Amino acid sequence: MSAAAPTSLENSRPLRWGIIATGMVASWFVTDLCLNRPDAQARHVIQAVGSSSLEKTQKFVATHISANDVAGRHTGVKTYGSYAEVYVDPDVDIVYIATPHAMHRKNCLDAIAAGKHVLCEKPFTVNAREAREVFDAAKAKGVFVMEGVWTRFFPLVRTLQRLLHEEHVIGDVHRVFCDFAMPKPMAQLSQTDESRITNRALGAGTLLDIGIYSLMWGMLALDPGVGESARKPQVLASQSIVNGVDWATSMFLTYATSEDGASPAQQAILTSSSLAKTPAAFCRIEGTTGYVVVEGFAGSVPAFFTVHDTTAPDAQLKKYEFERPGKGFYWEADAVAHSIAAGKTENELMPWAETLRVMDLMDEVRRQGGATFPQDEQ
């Protein structure tokens, strides 16, 4: 599904990345950048990595970059024992932030203050107020900033949106079910209160961690708009709360009937939980002439989807599969590179207004459900 790489790619200037944090997601991101992709849409160089200690950084580079860099594009990676050294490195163009949720605001502001572009993992911040503060700083500095909701850039997701909203393969979409549940030892983790999964100060709970993906699928399936062009749904929410942390969240979105009355109200039932594992078929999208089932390991990494045409006598179906070497972080990285090369401060698939729309919705879910963070009181 990817377009052929432009002939001038080899002569283009690479985007030089500084990596903040050395956890699992950061390892996935850098391993993907090391892949030798024949259909690559941009050039990337991992310029520097920073962590809380130099030893951790050096081990990370040896394990996840040097060992996977078969094409030899990421030699001489600078290793730092702090984040600040990455921010001020003159050879770093953009900082990729993969720290715990509650650290995103400060990490973004520090990188922006140093004049760096930013790609920050989801959730962008722990609440909408913090996100607005970061975007205000980016606007003042004139740098590119984007929330790293990598799944939105999958060819699978973009193809599904086209089929739903342009080709109307299942007619008018009217309902979506999506669940993202992964079992976690919540009671055990709560005893020490050190894990980002259960520590409120670190942005704990299922909503910001995995419920954000269920929310994404509901919004993308029901509304072709993004950011300021998207509609605002009504929200009803309930959360299972233990010590201020949501162990499970249920969200019910309703999009009102269109002004001309042609389109009836749409609904999305979206859930997240730390107490179970979602089956492979994690999302079902229903329309007037059929339905779509999306399957994969989890809501963040869809593998394929099947379109079911219920108007056909034999209830025909068509399966859409997409090749995905590695994890798939390179699609968002390529999009970021193109936006920066074009002199943009936002990306059209994930603009600032879309991040704020999602953050506002999650703030409202928590207001109704009861999950709280210390940052809400600041």
From TrEMBL:
<dbReference type="InterPro" id="IPR050984">
    <property type="entry name" value="Gfo/Idh/MocA_domain"/>
</dbReference>
<protein>
    <recommendedName>
        <fullName>D-xylose 1-dehydrogenase (NADP(+), D-xylono-1,5-lactone-forming)</fullName>
        <ecNumber>1.1.1.179</ecNumber>
    </recommendedName>
</protein>
<keyword id="KW-0560">Oxidoreductase</keyword>
<feature type="domain" description="Gfo/Idh/MocA-like oxidoreductase N-terminal">
    <location>
        <begin position="16"/>
        <end position="148"/>
    </location>
</feature>
<comment type="similarity">
    <text>Belongs to the Gfo/Idh/MocA family.</text>
</comment>
<dbReference type="Pfam" id="PF01408">
    <property type="entry name" value="GFO_IDH_MocA"/>
</dbReference>
<dbReference type="InterPro" id="IPR036291">
    <property type="entry name" value="NAD(P)-bd_dom_sf"/>
</dbReference>
<dbReference type="InterPro" id="IPR000683">
    <property type="entry name" value="Gfo/Idh/MocA-like_OxRdtase_N"/>
</dbReference>
